[in-house]
Amino acid sequence: MADSTFAEVFPAVSPDGRWLAYASNETGHFEVYVRPFPDVNAIRVQVSQAGGTEPRWAHSGRELFFRNATGALVAATVVPAATFTQGAQAVLFEGSQFLSVASQDARSYDVAPGDRRFVFMRPVVPTAAEGPPAADKLVQVTNWGAEVQAKLAGKAPK
Fold it and tell me: CA-to-CA distance for 158 and 80, rounded, in angstroms?
């Protein structure tokens, strides 16, 4: 794969470490593929059929999620076996209201623990009366568990 003349992006290793999902434009548009890991040259299975990008594994390893050509989120069932076997695919919901990744360096969504909820980035579109959006602040909280325990115990956090 590393010597490919095509763009191979959004690598995602399955939770059991046996499979590598990724998107490639070798057909002229992006599709989602799966290969065994770490022996990536053994086989290649195309998962998406009409465009696909941003593959993400379910934490259970029994589904592979990806965005199709219209931006919808698709779930492909993965059948546990010695070889990669996929089952049915279903569109979970339309995703055009969510941000599509313009860069191949970032993903626009993630799968929450439990595999039934998703976090998507959504573009901020202000009205003309609001003017340009103010820069959002990003707050990173570290060691929050210790802070909560300290406050519950009535102590000042360290």
Answer: 47
Alpha-carbon distance of 63 to 17, in angstroms, equals 14
Distance CA 22, CA 37 (A): 12
**Domain spans of the chain, in order of start:** 8-152
* 20 sits in which H/E element: strand 19-24
Give the model's confidence band at 102: pLDDT under 50 very low, under 70 low, under 90 confident, else very high.
low
Question: From residue 26, how far is each of 8, 13, 31, 71 by CA, in Å?
Answer: 8, 20, 8, 20
* Bridge pairing between strands 31-36 and 85-93: unpaired
Cα separation, 4 vs 15, in Å, equals 25
DSSP per residue, 24-73: E-TTSS-EEEEEESS-TTS--EE--SS-EEEEEE-TTSSEEEEEETTS-E
* Terminal-residue alpha carbon distance, the chain: 48
pTM: 0.74
